Predict the structure.
Amino acid sequence: MIHSGDMPDALVSSLTGARPMRPLPDLAQDLIPRPGEPVPRDIALALLRRQLGRIQSRVQEAFEAHALSGLTAARALAELTDGLIHAIHAYTLAQVAPDGSGERAFTAAEPPFVLAATGGYGRGVLGPFSDIDLLFLSDSPLGPRGRRAVEFMLYLLWDLGLKVGHATRSIRECLVDARADATIQTALLDSRFIAGERAVFDRFDAAFSLARQEWGVGQFLTSKRAERTARHKRYGDSPYLVEPHIKEGRGGLRDIQTMYWLARYAFGVQRMPELVGEDSPGGGLLTAREARAIRRAWDFLWTVRFHLHYVTGRAEERLTFDLQPVVGARMGYTRHGKQDGVERFMKHLFLTARDVVRLSRLLEPAIERAALGSPAVTKAQDPALATIGIAMADGKLLFAPDKDIAADPAVMLRLLRAARDRGLELHPLAQRALIRSAPRAQSLRDDPAAAALFLDLLTGKESHRWVRVLNEVGFLSRYIPDWARIVGLMQFDTYHVFTVEEHTIEAIGVLNQLEQQELEEAVPVASELVGQLQSRRALYVATLLHDIAKGRGGDHSELGAELAHEICPRLGLSQEETETVSWLVLNHLLVSQTAFKRDIDDPKTILDIAEVVQSPERLRLLLVLTVADMRAVGPKVWNGWKATLLRELYWRVAEVLAGGLSVPERDVRVARAKQAAAAMMEELPKEAVENFLALGYPGYWLSFDPETHARHAGLIREAEATGAPLTVSTRVLEARAVTEVTVYVTDHPGLFSRIAGALAVAGASIVDARIHTMTNGRALDTFWVQDAQGGAFDSPHKLARLSVLIEQALSGRLNLEQEIRKVRREPARLRAVQVPGRVVIDNHASNTHTVIEMNGRDRPGLLHDMTAAISEQGLQIASAHITTYGVRAVDVFYVKDVFGLKVENERKLTSLRAALLSALTPANGEAGAA
């Protein structure tokens, strides 16, 4: 037992080679200078606070000086805390028995109690701000003196500011409560003697060991699995979430602890290396390499956890965006090549989480088999399965006991195909065998039969499920070496929810959903087209490879297209299929970037994309791949408005490729639009219809459908009849998940900017806009907006406030700059994500307009600032295309000068670029959510 702190110092120096810390004072001697004469409580509390401060500061100093790793620091902190608790226990006994009798003060009527640690503290590891779990244990229920001692101790601990979890139980109560509650079983499993009468603890330990044998490991295993499933559902069922929970998330510390609990319950082991070797419990459940991997993961995660606690000053367990660069830097991760230090750190973390998941799947079935006996393995009834070495156990598939996977590694793929075709699960022992045999996948790289099996799994039923299995057991990284480079690779932004390989598997899952018609309502066009594809295999392989070159620097689409030429022939694709895959990977962003960043009403936009696509089949493939890619990014990325833009772009390009309307003369198209609009306005007087048809310039008639034109006609007629200087109309479009805001007002410079500012103050995010000046000098501007959650802006009181704010902004009664600053700032965790400002001015994307594309950090009023800068440069905005990727805003404007021409003067372009870059930079470094 530790009294002065000498033992942890020795532990530290032996494990790290560091110079031992100075010994801590003998606290018990200070608290009880003479037997039976403890110092007053206030003095004792001051001494204890000083000692606690020494403990915490010394461990923190050693840890931050890199003299201690996370696991060593956790053990040192627990052992030093033992010394503190031991001193408090001794002081408590001196107070309860002031005659100096101490433990002797407890008799048969007053049974002695034992102070034991439970939980993480019981395992001998403690975080800087973790709870201290204590068990006051006795042979029989405590008497008055014992209860007084417990109360005295707890109040001391609470006054020290420690978070204490505690229970007071007799040995019998422990067993009764544990039998009914696996959580209590787990806590007692970690129990460790600290102070008191050791014989009492030994009697409990023996009784609990016998009780565990009687209860059996089966019930404990079932309970831990259910607990883990619920925990993963709450904190993240993927080990690759970009803001992981270090303690409770999948692949986190709790999963390692679960492995330890199962091994401890079944075999009584204290450390994982005890499971190594033929003579170990269970007959060698782990190899030495696997035991070292568990230790490395345990140590790494504890190191991350210690940094999290110290950085935040609390028991923070979630590694949010704002903390990732800080923790990564503290752990020594710096930029290497094209990869930032934070991305290197997070990749290490994700690879560690992946290892924990694999080790759990490897160890858990082995513990179950060793503790409960081997499952009844039966020969597969299907002769074809029996022939290739596949058997059954508990209704699940696994390898036959005599199957040599090393001699036939392709059987790993055959096992998965058999499970898929027969609708059966893989036995846990099969997953254990897959993990251990995964390195042999590299021998299959040039095997045509293996390639056919892999393609069958990739393109067959529920293919995302089987690709995920191949990824999680490590097969895929060995079979396709380039895949290994994207495993655990994250992009430090708030747009992507998953790591690159997990996003890819999610995209394959979306393809599965499309083919099963599960997304017919959300994406009807893609759902219809997916059944018409002639190059289905190419589509699935392109989805698998579309992000394969991320993290290498350069354009990942171009690099990925080159890799596809190398990978596809190995997978058994024909030359034609290989070319299709390479083209899809090269252009997989074409449709989305065009739909969200270009004016699809501009004929040149449609002609440009048609020239790249060239065939209806490639257009179909590209649209389906785009939908899969976008929906796999995260739950908040897809919405009805984006679906509408993609659908409209598809039909316009398809029309050109079909040779029907190959973008006829502008006047013809305008005439047709006017005819369709007039047909929708039959109830209006002929004079009113003619007046309205004379108001719009050609661009207006090509921007809306006939129904919208008719609605505009009614709005304008009413405004003119009443003489209203301003008309604001709102319409919720539930199918598109947007609210349409139409503003009819006298046009003037800066109008768009002021409306955008008012919308920002109202809390509305603009997703698209159409700006039109009519022949009568009035503006008819249409904005499509969403709320902060990416849904329609539909609350009645918010819509009313929005109209009022627009009126106040246009009348000058609203100080936009001041009001925008009041808009709620974004969460701190998002502020760490940096987006460098970029302005691209393009005079080739449109025949009639200069196209300005701006990338920057989103914030309240960003659109107001940018459009104000454009207006101040004397330019007119014809249309705006607003897209947000997490905290990155990508806004595109089609503009002309005051003469209605493109901006081509170099001096003017230089001035424009400088003004826009200035607008992208937030004043005083402020940033917030738009």
Remarks:
- The chain is about 55% helix and 10% strand.
- Confidence is low (pLDDT under 50) at residues 1-21, 924-930.
